[in-house]
Amino acid sequence: MRRAVCPGSFDPIHNGHLEVIARAAGLFDEVIVAVSTNYAKKYRFSLEDRMEMARETLASLRGIIVEPMGEGLLAEYCRHRGISAIVKGLRSSSDFDYELPMATMNRQLAGVETVFLPAEAHYVHLSSTLIKEVNVLGGDISDFVPKSVLKRLLAGEPPTDLPRKG
Ligand code: PNS
Fold first, then answer.
1. Is 144 a domain residue?
2. Confidence check: pLDDT of 163 > 80
3. How many domains does the chain have?
């Protein structure tokens, strides 16, 4: 069984993530969407909410499992689960510059390869951070996130570390 991981904060999951995960599912027998926790980071959504949004939006795809990644090394996570590849979407050359040392490190640490999928042109400008900022400042984000995520973003209180509208 060829098992891959798509790791990330998914705070929240957006259409660019979904497109890369769907393509990964076409390449591997099983894809684990590993939702990370980094206590130095301030998240908009709890780990449970981030996982629930990912599960809701990926429910129709076969061979995808959503799991918490924990706080440890991704390389160790891969080693323990028999994961042979990390799949990452690349939006730009700066994504590549950021990802390349991590890919090399993960291969050295656990022999796990990183597979880069070029982001679909329609999604190259998307990031969770930008989507949250546009949302908080009153912009329309309905083209960028699945419906269940949109509902939560519109329903929730804006985080205190971003400027409020008005
Ligand atoms: O969505 P993000 O926040 O860009 O995801 C980053 C993530 C989770 C992929 C990255 O921070 C990561 O790999 N964290 C695990 C810690 C780790 O293994 N660090 C060493 C990387 S070589």
1. yes
2. no
3. 1
Residue 107 lies in a domain: yes
Residue 33 structure tokens:
């969407």
Q: Which amino acid is at 126?
A: L
Task: Flag whether 14 is in a domain.
Answer: yes
In 3D space, the residue among 120, 131, 119 whose CA is nearest the CA of residue 14 turns out to be 131
- Provide the whole-model pTM: 0.93
For residue 12 and ligand 1, the question of a CB distance below 6 A is answered with: no
- pLDDT of 115 higher than 50: yes
Which domain CATH number covers 79? 3.40.50.620
Name the phi and psi angles at 149, rounded to 5: -70, -40
- Domain extent at residue 125: 3-155
Pocket test for ligand 1, best of 5, 9, 81, 94 (most atoms within 8 A of CB): 9
**Residue 122 designated active-site:** no
Q: 44 φ, ψ to 5°?
A: -75, -35
Stretch 29-33: mean pLDDT, rounded? 98
